[in-house]
Each structure stands twice: as C-alpha cells, then as structure tokens.
Amino acid sequence: MADATGGDSSAPAAPVLPPVAMTTPEAVKAAEKAAVGVHKKINLAAAPIRQYLEATVVPVLMQGMQALCKERPDNPVEYLAYYLLSHNPEPNTKPLPGGAAAGGEAAAKAD
C-alpha cells in the first residue's frame, strides 16, 4: 500500500543520521582516536616493507641520526646503536632470533 508521498508504507524507515554541522569537536576527536587505534592494530609484519619500516624504525632512526650529527662522536656506529637501544619506544622483552641480543657476544664469550 502506498502512502501520501507515493512510497511504500511497509518499507523500513531509513536511519536518521546527524547533520555534519551538528558534529561536536569531541565526537570528531573520539572518532579520530578510534580510527587511529584500529590503524595501529594492523599487523605490521604483513605490511609492505616500506610501510613496516616507516611505522617501526624510521621515527627513532631519524632522531638518532639527528643526535649523531649534533654530537659527532668518534665511533658513530656504536653511538647510533646505543641511541637506538636506549630510545626504543617498544622495548623487546623476548630474545632476538638466532640469540642475537644487546651484549650477546659478551654472553657467548662468558660461556
């Protein structure tokens, strides 16, 4: 049966969405935070190499390179290695593959 507008009165009503102009800044921030949270949950191991490196290594590496250029130490590789280990935003609590870990050579020599 058709209603006065010419539509079918038995059809379900479309959900009412709030107008964009009525969206509060708090709601926008909450939605953005939720979206970022979902993005971070993406398995980075399955990401393309460039995306994986840009998400995990590049930020701290660039900071380390800036500190390296500023300090200009006698042994830049050792300085950068120490910087990366000491500024790791997600310290690795499990052993590295192949038994390679910070100080791994010293531990192997002690055996």
Number of helices: 5
Distance between the termini: 87 Å
| Overall 3D form | elongated
What integer is the average pLDDT?
Answer: 73
Q: CATH homologous superfamily name of one domain?
A: cAMP-dependent protein kinase regulatory subunit, dimerization-anchoring domain
Radius of gyration: 27 Å
- Pattern of helices and strands: HHHHH
Q: Which residues sit in consecutive blocks of at least 5 with pLDDT less than 50?
A: 102-111
Largest sheet: none
Question: What would you call the structural class?
Answer: mainly alpha
> What amount of the residues lies in strands?
under 5%
Q: Any idea what the CATH architecture of one domain is?
A: Up-down Bundle
What percent of residues adopt helix (DSSP H or I)? Answer: 40-55%
User: What is the CATH class of one domain?
Assistant: Mainly Alpha
Total beta strands: 0
CATH topology of one domain: cAMP-dependent Protein Kinase, Chain A
Structure explained in plain terms:
It is a single chain. With 111 residues, this protein is mainly α. The chain has helices spanning 25-40, 49-56, 58-71, 76-86, 104-110. It is elongated, with a radius of gyration of 27 Å. The model is unreliable at 102-111 (pLDDT under 50).
